[in-house]
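Annotated sample (chain length 339).
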Amino acid sequence: MSEAPRRWKAILASAVMVMLLLAAIEGACRLFPHRDAGDTIAGLVIPDRDLLWRLRPFADGPLRTNELGLRGPPCNPNARFKILVLGDSVSWGDGIDDARKCYPQLLAEELDRLATTGTYQVINSGCPGYSTFQEGAYLKLYGLRLKPDLVILQFCLNDVVERYSTLFACGGDNVFLGVDTRTAIGGLRGWLVRHSRAAEAVCRGLQSAARRRQDYAVTALAQAPLPPHLVKAWAQTEQEIEDLRQVCRREQIPLLLVIAPYAFQVQAPASLRQPQDRLIAFARARGLPCVDLLPVFAAAWAATNAPLFNDEDHFSERGHRVAARALVAPVLRGLPARP
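Output written by the structure step:
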């Protein structure tokens, strides 16, 4: 037999072996499929074409939502001032079973305690997993309809390295908050992650590694100099904040930027505040009022050494109280005067 047929036979045999191996891997993955660990809030969120996901209206239980699909009391048509909070799981209140103990509702109580006329409503549109691009989209699609007198944009450091981009880049997830984010991925890659359990398993491995890098990246934001990928991520995030600011400016609605700290920053605020300083400079250059909660939390922690966080970035009940009290004066300054 000549050399050419022998070579083609070897190639064909190798191809068959690879196909059999891939089929065996796919079969094993289907025999032992991934199970949702149950740590999502599946059932409380619904898919949304523009936001990817949002909270389901009239959800019941400790994490109940109102008629707008927001965590908090029903809308008050008689409120003299409406304050719309745009945020993520920090504002939503991850780890807090009672919405009345989250800072948006605590802020409303503090404002009403000081009020001489009328009432205040703080509308908490915070949603787990949201980042600045979704918060800006929510404002344009839903928030402006509420006719807020003031918008609060709660910013968390992980907005710069937000989780959804990681999931999308690594193939999406069919159980992320109960929403199948794989449907947003097109082409052959999208088909594979939706139909192949082996491809899904590879995606999960990539996502796990990416999340570990992401945790490191949040810490790296507080250090200098920044690596190129974080410089690029900051630029994108700042552009999203600027787009949101322009919407508020066009609608003549005051905007207040609130920077939520991470737990690791509170014990050494002077040396780990690079992200806050960058955002404060960004806001000052645009005349955007800004509240930095890091020194407030650092002072509160130094005074009592009581926990202010339930984990790395989500406030404890005490943390929510500290945040609410710190926001009273800036909110009152930001609200427009009423005759």
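Annotation: The chain has twelve helices and seven strands.
Annotation: Residues 36-40 have pLDDT under 50 and may be disordered.
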